[in-house]
Amino acid sequence: MRGIMNSSIKEPVIQTSDLIVSLSRAADLVSPALASHHLRVAVIAYSIGRELNLSAAQINDTVLAAALHDVGAFSLAEKTAALQFELENPHQHAETGYRLLKSYSPFSQAADIVRFHHVPSSHGDWFNGNKVALGSHIVHLADRVAVLVGEQREVLGEAREISEKIREQSGKMFVPDLVEAFGSLAEKESFWLDAASPPDLALPGALAIEADINELLGLARLFSRIIDFRSRFTATHSSGVATSAEQIARFVGFSERECGMMKVAGYLHDLGKLAVPAEILEKPSELTGTEFNVIRGHTYYTYRILAPIEELYDINNWASFHHERLDGSGYPFHHKGRDLPLGSRIMAVADVFTAITEDRPYRKGMPEEKAMQVLHRMADKQALDHDIVYLLKINFAKINASRTEAQARAAEEYREY
Length: 417
Known about the structure:
single chain; mainly alpha; two-stranded antiparallel ribbon; 21 helices; 2% strand
């Protein structure tokens, strides 16, 4: 097996906030109506927190919750319904988001805020026997302001009307003290212009820390749940790909550090599927040409979402090129063999291997002999790397056992949701 240039691959050490911003952007790609919504809410919540002179820790947790407040809204219908100023059933996606974020301990405070971010002021500080944090009320107000701002091109001309609508709900939907703080902000043109076109947000406090490969693994695993749990068809897929890619990389000769990076890439490889409506992922019948093209765009979005984070350069290439093929027939960039790093070739094999061997609600996974026939045919057609397929074949039992175990754990987590 060919060697790799270990010295050319650097372990990523990144600002956690960069990944959060990337995830926020990804969550809003599913519809033009949602463009920058999460970041808009985060910017408004940050401004309110500063106006209230909250501590850095309080602002940090509130802004993090704002940046991820609707991750529990899986379907396009649910996401667009949340853009209505007054919602009929707002708590289901908030509860789902809470459960997702609670599974990653550094986000536990933000999870509590997300859980009750649609509780109106009229309920007071308690809801269903649970304390409602001030951050939840802030995110609620910021979210509703963001809905009213939307993509207003003339936001300064709309500011007075938006402010009046918020003031009308003081003591009903919104906490009066927060409405007062918002009123002070509303006097500044800069507030409205930031809200309409939110700048890249540097999250304050404890979140703006450097994450090494171990911390990155935990965060990437959370991302994979948010990506995969949107559909029962894909509920365990990224866990299987991540583990398979890690195992193959180990047999190829990657170092432990690089194997960890490969696992992160596996967790993130379908990040762009957040731009695909769950209604398409869940469609029981054959996809139309338009719907299939929407799915084909997911690797492009994975690449573009992660590209601004320079420290993830290798991980991004390994993750985003998993549908590229050695003969140039893949997508979205039509890279050929010479353009595809070894990590990308490993990911391509891991993705196909996982897709054909995993059980899905509508069919059983392929047994070893049939799966290897598919992989060998693809290698013969110069779609997959022959050497990597061969390594998978001679280590099939161990790699498949690891995949099965990882996906069984993911399936149990999914059942809890």
